[in-house]
Specification:
With about 350 residues, the protein is α/β, with parallel strands linked by helices. The chain has 2 domains: about 110 residues, Aspartate Aminotransferase, domain 1 (Alpha-Beta Complex); about 220 residues, Aspartate Aminotransferase, domain 2. It is about 40% helix and about 15% strand. Helix 8 links the parallel strand 5 and strand 6. Helix 2 packs across helix 11, helix 4 runs parallel beside helix 11 and helix 12 runs parallel beside helix 14. The longest helix has 24 residues.
Length: about 350
């Protein structure tokens, strides 16, 4: 006689409370091809030609049929970043790095401190983990880092602190000595320093990994390296921490193409140096243009600048889009502000020309 199995299921599945409480995140990424992309802080000229050439010459049908192997990538990247292979892991962009940190070190209900405004995924993955999220505002006016306020907010219950340095979208940063104060004040918390824009400011905590057991650093290939479509990054910490992180990481979260491209990208130092020099020159050009238009701005340590255009922020963004120039509206959290990615000087000249026409 055939056995009958009965499973009494609820009429409707109920998501976890953390998911129910979250607001959905919808990045405005549609219809960006064939436009001047000054909205997502990407490299505006594309990846290194050496990366493209390597992929074309060495990617085969056989390569695509094999699960990723990371040994060579980890060897090359550890050498480039000056860390041991046991002190880093490849990640699917910075997003996976944040998620791994949450999954490894923050329990449901654990306290996480994030700055506001900052990268939306800090709050996203904290909420998804069921953490209790405490937000601190950047200081009004010049949007400086709220050092004293943050140190005062840290408690023995704090389990993670997430810091973008320089910060997106403000462009403001914090020095090594300030970050060390935070690490010392929160020895029980995982402190992530997201260095997505390191190449434009030169401030890094990588050299301090072995001095602080609670320090984590992330880097991405989505910005200066021009590989946003690849979704590749790195998470760094002491070997003991990384051993725990890897236990909770999918074994193949980074695809072979991304790992292969990352190896070549870090070798083309001239491409990076030339692009950074161009961006820094273009940033000065943008400052001058905004001053001539009498548009206040926040001085930046990254490849983007916040401009305060007032109540017309959204209409100006939309009009620029109609003219083929994409910029990012940040007025939903910083009233009246648009964020302009800095590309080449020619690209910034075009932005300023279009902005002048509608200003």
């Amino acid at each position: 006689m055939r056995a009958r199995w009965r499973c009494d299921l609820p009429a409707n599945l109920t998501p976890r409370k953390a998911v129910l409480d979250m607001a959905p995140y919808h990045p405005p990424t549609g219809g960006r091809r064939n436009k001047l992309r000054l909205d997502f802080n990407e490299n505006t000229v594309g990846a290194s030609p050496h990366v493209i050439d390597f992929i074309k010459r060495f990617l085969t049908a056989a390569d695509l049929s094999i699960y990723p192997e990371y040994d060579h990538a980890l060897e090359d990247l550890s050498r480039h970043f000056g860390v041991a292979q046991s002190e880093l892991t490849l990640t699917n962009g910075t997003d996976e790095a944040i998620q791994l940190l949450m999954n490894t070190f923050v329990d449901d209900g654990g306290e996480v401190i994030v700055l506001r405004p900052s990268y939306a995924m800090y709050r996203f993955y904290s909420q998804l983990a069921g953490a209790c999220v405490a937000e601190l505002d950047y200081r009004a006016g010049k949007l400086a880092f709220p050092m004293e306020e943050l140190l005062e907010r840290i408690t023995p219950q704090t389990r993670a602190i997430l810091i973008s340095n320089p910060n997106n979208p403000t462009g403001t940063g914090i020095g090594v000595s300030g970050l060390e104060k935070i690490l010392k004040k929160a020895p029980q918390a995982a402190v992530l320093v997201d260095e997505a824009y390191y190449e434009f400011c030169g401030v890094t905590m990588l050299g301090r990994l072995r001095e602080h057991t609670n320090l984590f650093v992330s880097r991405t290939f989505s910005k200066v390296y021009g590989m946003a479509a690849m979704r590749c990054g790195c998470l760094f910490s002491q070997a003991g921490n990384m051993a725990h992180v890897r236990k909770g990481q999918s074994p193949y979260s980074v695809n072979s193409l991304a790992a292969m491209a990352a190896r070549i990208a870090v070798q083309d130092t001239k491409f990076v140096e030339d692009y950074v020099a161009e961006v820094l020159a273009a940033r000065e050009l943008l400052y001058v243009g905004l001053e001539q238009l009498k548009i206040p701005y926040v001085e930046s340590q990254a490849n983007f600048v916040l401009g305060q255009v007032g109540e017309r922020a959204v209409p100006i963004r939309d009009e620029l889009r109609e003219r083929g120039v994409l910029v990012r509206d940040r007025s939903y959290e910083l009233p009246g502000y648009l964020r302009f990615t800095v590309g080449t000087r020619d690209q910034i000249a075009r932005l300023l020309d279009e902005l002048e026409r509608i200003w």
